[in-house]
Amino acid sequence: MAGVRQFDEQATFERALDVFWTKGFRATSMPDLAAGTGVQRGSLYHAYGGKEQLFLKVFEQFTADFLAGAAEALADDNPKRALTAFFDFVIASITTGTPSRGCLSTRTAVEADGVVEDAVRKLLDDLEELLLARLEQADLAVEPREAARLVVAMTRGLAVLERVYDDPARLRETAATLVTSLLR
Amino acid sequence: MAGVRQFDEQATFERALDVFWTKGFRATSMPDLAAGTGVQRGSLYHAYGGKEQLFLKVFEQFTADFLAGAAEALADDNPKRALTAFFDFVIASITTGTPSRGCLSTRTAVEADGVVEDAVRKLLDDLEELLLARLEQADLAVEPREAARLVVAMTRGLAVLERVYDDPARLRETAATLVTSLLR
DNA sequence: GCTATGTTTGACAACACTGTCAAACATGCG
DNA sequence: CGCATGTTTGACAGTGTTGTCAAACATAGC
User: Fold this and answer.
1) Model-level pTM?
2) pLDDT at B152
C-alpha cells in the first residue's frame, strides 16, 4: 500500500465534530471543515466525498459516546437518582464550552434531512430503548414506553431552551420537575 | 404623499411567513422571499432593509396569532381538557401542510441569534405567562411556574420530534403522557 | 397637467461555496 | 533504488447570495 493518508483520521474526526457542533450542520461549509481540521478541502473531498458523508462518519462516533454516557448515568439503582443523573449528563453535554455549543443532534434534527436525518432518528430510537430498559424497572404512573418517549422529547425541549435562555440551572430545574411528575 | 407602495403589505407578510415557515429562517434567502411574495428583491431591501428586519415584522404577527390560539385552547374550565386542547393546537400548528411545515419558532430558536433570538425568547416568555395563569387554577403536583416551564419545554420537544418522526398521533400521545403525569 | 416624492426595476460588483481535476507529491513494496 | 499507488495541492468554472444604485416609474397634492 503506497500512497498513504497524510493526516490523522481520528484527530480529524474530533476536530470536525467540534466544527459541526459549534456551527451546526447546515452552517458548516467545507472551507470551515478544512480550516477546523487543518486538512485541505480537496483532501476532504477526496477522502470522504463531501460534507454529508464526513458528518455521518463523525456523528457515528458522537452517537456511541453519547449513548455510553447516558447508559452510565442511568445505571443508578434508584430511579430518581438515575433519571436526575441522566438529565445532568445531557445538560452538561449541551452546555459545555464558551459560548455553550448546544445539542448537536437537536440542531441537526431541525436543520437536516435525508440520510443525516435518518442518523438522528436512529440515535433517538436507541436513546428511547435505553430509557425504556431502565424505566421498566421503575414504579411509574404511566406506561414505560410512553415515559421513555416523554423523556426523549424533554431532552429535545431542553436543547432548544438552552439556545434561547443560556441558563443551565434553569434546565436542571425543568428536568427535575419532569422527574418529580413522572415518579410521583 | 406621492410615491406610494405598489404591493399589498399584508399579503406580502403572509406570503413571506409561508416562505420562512417552509424553509426556515437561515435557509431563506432574499431571492426566495422575492419569489414567494412576488415582490422584487430590490423593493424588499428598500422597504424593510433586509431579511432579518422583514422576519421580525412577519414574526410579530405570527406571535400574536399563535398566542391568541393558545389562549383560546387553554380557556376550557377543565384543566385536563384545557392542556389537551393546548397541545392539540400546538401540534396542529406544526403538522399543517404537505410536507408539514414544522414549528417556526423552534426552528428559528435553533438557527438564529441576535435580535431574532430575542424575538423567540419573548414569545416563549409570553407563552410561559399564559400557561402560568391557567395552571395556577389547577391542582398540580408541582409548582405552577415550574409546570408552565415544563409545558413550554415540551412544546419545543414535540417540535423537534415532529421533524424526526413526522407522526402527529405519536406527538399527541407523548403530550397526553405529560398531561397525565402533571395532573395525576 | 405638473411637480415633488417615494417606489420599482434591472444591473452591478463583491463575495462565498461547490465539485472537479491535473500535476506534484509521498511512501510501501519489490 | 525505482516504481506503482494513492494522496495532496492549488486552481478552475459554475452557481448563488448580498447589498447598492441610478434610472425609470407611479401617484398624491397643488
Assistant:
1) 0.95
2) 99
Q: Residue type at A31?
A: P
For residue A79, whether the previous peptide bond is cis, meaning omega lies within 30 degrees of 0, is: no
Asked whether the beta carbons of B22 and B101 are under 8 A apart, the reply is yes
Main-chain dihedrals φ then ψ at residue A2, nearest 5 degrees = -95, 165
Q: What is the pLDDT of residue A41?
A: 98
Q: Does any CB of chain B come closer than 8 Å to the CB of residue A93?
A: no
Interatomic CA distance for residues B3 and A178, integer angstroms: 57
**pLDDT score of A1 more than 80:** no
State yes or no: pLDDT of A2 exceeds 90. Answer: no
Res. B151: pLDDT tops 80: yes
C-beta neighbour count of A160 within 10 angstroms:
29
Chain A residues closer than 8 Å to B149 by CB:
170, 173-174, 177
Query: Any chain B CB within 8 A of the CB of A126?
Result: no
Q: Which CATH architecture has domain A59-183?
A: Orthogonal Bundle (1.10)
Contact B164 A26 (CB under 8 A): no
Q: Cα(A125)–Cα(A128) distance, rounded to whole angstroms?
A: 5
A182 contacts B181? CB cut-off 8 A: yes
Question: Does residue B1 have a pLDDT over 70?
Answer: no
Q: How far is A8 from chain B (nearest CA, A)?
A: 31
| Residue to substitute from A21, A177, A182, A183, interface B, most B β-carbons within 10 A | A177
Rounded to an integer, what distance in angstroms lies between the CA atom of residue B27 and that of residue B39?
Answer: 19
CB contact under 8 A, B153 and A150: no
Cross-chain CB nearest to A163 (options B109, B155, B163): B109
Confidence of residue B3 (pLDDT cuts 50, 70, 90): confident
What mean pLDDT value characterizes chain A?
97
Taking only the tens place, the pLDDT of each residue in A59-80 is 999 999 999 999 999 999 999 9
Residue B172, chain A, CB below 8 Å: the answer is: no
Inter-chain CB pairs, A–B, below 8 Å: 126
